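Much of our argument rests on the idea that a fold can be written as discrete symbols. In the encoding step, the backbone of a single protein was reduced to a row of integers, each denoting a local shape. We regard such an encoding as a compact summary of how the chain folds. The record that follows shows the chain in one-letter code together with its fold in token form:
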Amino acid sequence: MRRRLLLLGALVLVMLLALTVWVGVRAWQATSHLQDAADRLPVLQEQLVGLDVDAARTTVERLRQDTSAATDLSGDPVTGAVAAFPLGGQNLAALRDGSTAVDAFVRDGGPGLLTAAAAADAFAGGLSGGDLDPGALRDAADGLEQLQTALERARAEVDAIDRRYLLDGVEAALAELEASLRLTDEVGGELAPGLLP
């Protein structure tokens, strides 16, 4: 009987260790994808300010892949179950909620950003060629409005994350997400002056 209890205890211990490793690796991978996405933002900013819409489209797609992967990794059922536990679970919940907010922002705001950039490019071409297209201004305004709506929603979701008891690394990742959202807002602001003669 004693031997069976020891075997059962060892089995439970191995399962808990495997669960911890599983969740830890997935959290690390999600954080890595979010960092990759954050590293792409300055490149996207240069592309948009330079009105290189094709390159920006590729960068936005890569951003989408990174944020989607982070959301998938931090939102699986096992990680979700562990996130419900005290003593560390709030860190996983913060990672999941931040990943979800940024992924929704890229999915919902990225097309608006690209629409605004393409319209700014078309309008700038019309300025230099003497063939102004007022539709480009409307398209740009619509794209910037779509971007702003997605940005406000993402900020509200990130601001709603409970930051008590977070590990320094998770708190730093959330600060990075907030900085990324601010940078994206600046990029949208940099497109608007290109629409004015």
